[in-house]
Amino acid sequence: MITATYKLVAPAGREDELLGVLRFFKGPTEARRECLLCTISQDADDPCVITYQEGWRTEEALKSHIRSDHYRQLLYILEMSIAKPEIRFSTTAETEGMEWIEALRGGA
Q1: Which of 14, 29, 35, 104 is the residue whose CA sits 20 to 30 A from 69?
Q2: DSSP secondary structure code for residue 6 in this structure
């Protein structure tokens, strides 16, 4: 899986507006077959800090998404940030869950 993470800073008092446009963008994105996850989160200590994250099955799926007309909307949304958006793309070769914790802790 390849994950795209976008961290934005909303103008004070306009957090709900930014969250709303991200929700509008999120719907069609997560409906794409190759999209594995799509989340929006707001920092508990600073509600102006908003993180939008997408998870894609393959790098090619993400590239296709970035080249799409739909993605242009996200570029406009990123411009709403009052600080330079932090953008990161990362790959995940393996994903583990509770079983891994239990194995490391000796079944405890």
Answers
A1: 14
A2: E
